[in-house]
Amino acid sequence: MPKKFPPEFKRDVVRVARRGDLSHAEVAADFDISIESVRRWIRQADIDDGVVDGKTTSEQNELVQLRREKRRLEMENEILRRAAAYFAAGSLPK
């Protein structure tokens, strides 16, 4: 499971990396994270700042939330369908 870093930490890493006086590898070593994390956070910060097209962090979070809600509703719907079938079968004449 990947480590979760707070948004403030990510912002600090991006700010240091954008200054330009250190390479991504040096920034990664200074903050004890992977180079790919630095690149990914910079790429996402560019999207959030409107520099590059893509899904912003808030849009991604909303999408995750909506998918979870959809999955929950589908499970509830399946439970209700099974309950209705069970009770309907019990009320049939024998």
From TrEMBL:
SUPFAM superfamilies per UniProt: Homeodomain-like
Keywords, sorted A to Z: Coiled coil
Pfam family, any one: HTH_Tnp_1
A single GO molecular function term of this UniProt record: DNA binding
GO biological process, one term: DNA transposition
Any coiled-coil regions, as ranges: 56-83
PANTHER family, alphabetized: PROTEIN DISTAL ANTENNA
Protein name: Transposase-like protein IS3/IS911
